[in-house]
Amino acid sequence: MHPDNDRLPRRCVDPVPFSTLGSVSDTVAHERARSEETGLADSAAAVTAERLARAEGDAERAAARSGVQVRTIDDPAGHQQAAEVLQQIWEHPAGAPLPPAMLRAFDYTGNYVAAAFEGDRMVGAATGFHTDHGALHSHIAGVLPSHQGRAIGYVLKLHQRAWALRRGIAVIAWTFDPLIRRNAHFNLVKLGATVAAYLPDFYGEMTDHINAGDHSDRLLVEWDLRKPVPGAAVTAAADAVTVLCARQDEQPELQSGTGHERLLQLPVDVEALRRTDPALARQWRAALREALAGVLADGHRIVGLDPHSAYLTRRESS
Fold first, then answer.
1. What is the DSSP secondary structure assignment for residue 146, as one 8-state letter?
2. Which of 6, 52, 79, 304 is the most exposed place for a label (fewest CB within 10 A)?
């Protein structure tokens, strides 16, 4: 599930200055139009009985391997418990990231609210809601720290996939922090989701234990449920240009360059950097912003993650 963190990054040269980014709303509008054009947002896509049975089987086998069961929650006591689990994960100063009443409302209006259980103990929770273009948006999913590293997050996503397919939904979308390498690997390689948009400071200032003190830049991904899991890493061409890389002292370094394919490396563990060297973590945020701004402005899109856990971008054909 986790990326290979043991390889030393390639060296970089010619750092370039930072600059600002464009409008988030413009990016969202463009990417929504792109999704509609490619048909990813078509929830009426063929969801055959065979595909559904395969998805449900995948979810059941993964749950058995992890020693948990996942089920939807449809009662106020369960929603209260799920809110408490989410609070234990995110440690939000104002209370749970999602209050029980919101989870209750999501469930009552036909949205996805589920939890993972080890015996009678709830150890993870997830929720998502229907969008205006036929997809399910997975808003939050998490596993208690004591149970992380057992692929329970993967189990939750597979359960969510089967739930969506049973309701004729062909796409699940969500956001994640593009600096967190293990999450990038999980989303793009383990699940096989694709990047739909880059959303700088998407949530504004956040105050929970995980995100406090940092900008809330996110990648929006779309998971085509008609495709098999897992996905795969992508391979860069021999002439791909690295425009963001990590020096051996862990400092980010931007370099100028053009090319049909470009690579953007990530820090080994930005979550640890936030605790031990917040200034360096902020440098990485600014560097990734600058690198993404440059490649996106030049007509590129992120096509995946390579085996060294670098984003690979490719210029879209006109």
1. G
2. 6
